[in-house]
Structure of Nucleotidyltransferase domain-containing protein:
Amino acid sequence: MHIYAFGSICRGDISLGSDIDLLAIVESYESRIDPDKFSIYSYKRIQEIWQEGNPFAWHLSLESRLLFSSDKLDYLKVLESPEKYKNCVQDCEKFFLLFREAHASIITGSNSRVFDLSTVFLSIRNIATCFSLGVMEQPDFSRNSALCLGVNSIPIALDSYYVLERARILCTRGYGKTITDDEIVTTIRRLNEVHEWMHKLVEKAKKYE
């Protein structure tokens, strides 16, 4: 068994909304590992995502720290670098679709608006991460990857961006400052800017296929 920390704690950018991401790699079912606290993967699945060039494989390769090794080896280091990431366009289109679905739900009132804004933030973060990995030389796996793409960074006003981030933290961790109706309305009005930004990222990603 191998246990790793990964994410913000390894990047050194922990904030109030951060948690500690833990990975357990196991041969088979392991009763000592709590699935509520660990991302649990088999060795076979880790090898598969390495061969796929999966973004999570690159995340682990670049931003993880070994905490425990049953064989005294750093298993992920032994695997070396993952294969080249080849699904940038497909993944960017997937998260663009997720955004459009959340935006449509906001308009129709199908779900809680805070929940839908949380999903919008998830789509923003993930499309930015995939774009940075597939198109840029330096992948960015941070929560605010959309702000770190240089000329390709999200153009939405920062106050609305941070409303989206707060919505994500409220929905996933259950704490944070309550989002006011005025903040929600202002942010929703700016979602067309996000739509245009995502469309441009997808089109740029296609040029790098």
In short: The radius of gyration is 18 Å. The longest strand covers residues 21-26. The CA atoms of residues 4 and 67 lie 5 Å apart.
